[in-house]
Specification:
One of its GO terms (molecular function) is hydrolase activity. The chain is an alpha/beta fold. Helix content is 25%, strand content 26%. It is built from seven helices and 14 strands. Helix 1 runs parallel beside helix 3. The termini are far apart.
Length: 265
Amino acid sequence: MRASLIQLSVDASDTADERRHRAASLVRGRAGDDLVVLPELWTAGAWAYDDWQRDAEGIDGPTAEIMSAAARAAGSWLHAGTIVERDRDGTLYNTALLFDRTGDLRGSYRKIHRYGFDTGEATLMGGGRDIVTVPTDFGVVGLAICYDLRFPELFRGLLDAGAELVVVPAAWPAARLNHFQLLTRTRALEEQVFLLACDAAGTHGGMRQAGHSVVVDPWGTVLGETGAEEETATVDVEMAEVARIRSELPVLRDRVLAIQTPRQR
């Protein structure tokens, strides 16, 4: 299968609606790809906290409408990154949207691990509770978002739910690029999955984003990577490698799940 990561530049020079139409044009330009991926919170801006209430929308809002049409036009599965979702009770969530080739919404995932400690996302957004995987015509796709990369138990949960490929939209800070590069390779290697992490570029909310979107195979090998600016990386992914590598190096069968906490003496 062929996958493209569209590393959008997200900064204060354009509006959310302008970014929607630019992203849709880029997605349509990937006609024939099997999977297209966008970054985290590329409409409102992951670090522009003051804009979240203004740019929040429903799961069937303007971003979903435009991205659905773009997926249908491209004939591709589209992971439309994430939106600031406003639930019916007014709670905000960082929510990923996955559309199929006909433009139908086939999966959504509310980010479980919220970044910011006592600020930003951690205080302004609700946290998701559900592990989400979606069957596709090229394999089972697991959904995670940015800061989730720091929590291996989520990725083990995705593995146990059948994931063969995990998609991670991100808005990772440039100051910690080395963490992003290490964690993406580690999560792919430990779960023996393909991992596609699409990061944002540009500066907004005072934060420079890292870029360097990446495709990693189940050996932990980087198959494709962008630079720091807006660009698209396209990689051919051999999904049969997941089963082959798990068979050749069957480490997952040696998991010990009933480990007991030692007693204090």
